[in-house]
């Protein structure tokens, strides 16, 4: 008797009743403004995860012991951002209703808005921790308010001032930086100051959104909008472990892998390893 061939992220096959964290993919890139292809990110991360070990020598933990369920990719309406975001919100809400943590694999960064809507409805006092090369604070991009370039502005509309903390930001238009200086806390260029923010957010519900282009393109070329001057893999690995290990993370995402732009597979391996370290720190 043949079993269904259902590919999950490495070892993330815990039963629903036992899972603390539930992965799901949002293969969506309809508003990508430069190089498309992030819709293939979630599948690539899953497939290439089997090139990694389940054991992390950094944390002395093993995914074999973790309580994680990979629930697969959503079948999204690629031509309709409103509908796609509603589908993502619905899945995240189902996970939250089950008393579990949603962990979203994107996809372009706009997908964060769908998951965050569900989290904010459940945790009205939630704060956002945002790692990215780009501020994503535009009011609109070429007239479209639902764009990956506007996603944090849309999230701000849900939570208001002093609830969003950004790190690694090194790109954006002048108006974004001016507006952001009045409404969010932005740490430019690197992850310096993270420890102080972790102390400030201790005990509070936090949504963690990670755009992988916070990494330098020499480490992570497989992305739609590469931005020179980013952080190293080890800097990011240490940071996500601290974030996921010390904060009350009530939802999170990893996005913006566009695997076709790195045919070596190195970028996909980087993404998979970061996801592994986050899952282990959360468990």
Notes on the protein architecture:
Helix 7 packs parallel to helix 8. The longest helix is centred in the N-terminal third of the chain and has 17 residues, at 81-97. The chain has eight helices and ten strands. It has one domain (21-282): 3-Layer(aba) Sandwich (Arginase, Chain A). By secondary structure, it is of the alpha/beta class. The strands form two sheets. An eight-stranded parallel β-sheet has the order 4-1-5-10-9-6-7-8, sandwiched between helices. 34% of the residues lie in helices and 18% in strands.
| Uncertain regions spanning at least 5 consecutive residues | none
Helix content: 25-40%
Order of helices and strands: EHEEEHEHEHEHEHEHEH
Whole-number mean pLDDT: 95
Q: Output the radius of gyration.
A: 17 Å
Q: What fold name stands as the CATH topology?
A: Arginase, Chain A
What is the correct CATH architecture? 3-Layer(aba) Sandwich
Secondary-structure topology with pairs:
Layout: E1 21-26, H1 41-48, E2 55-56, E3 61-62, E4 68-73, H2 81-97, E5 101-106, H3 111-122, E6 127-131, H4 151-159, E7 164-169, H5 174-183, E8 185-188, H6 194-201, E9 205-211, H7 233-246, E10 248-255, H8 266-282
Parallel strand pairs: 1-4, 1-5, 5-10, 6-7, 6-9, 7-8, 9-10
Antiparallel strand pairs: 2-3
Write a brief caption for the model.
With 283 residues, the protein is α/β, with parallel strands linked by helices. It is built from 8 helices and 10 strands. The strands form 2 sheets. It has an 8-stranded parallel beta sheet, with helices on both faces. Strands 2-3 form a two-stranded antiparallel sheet.
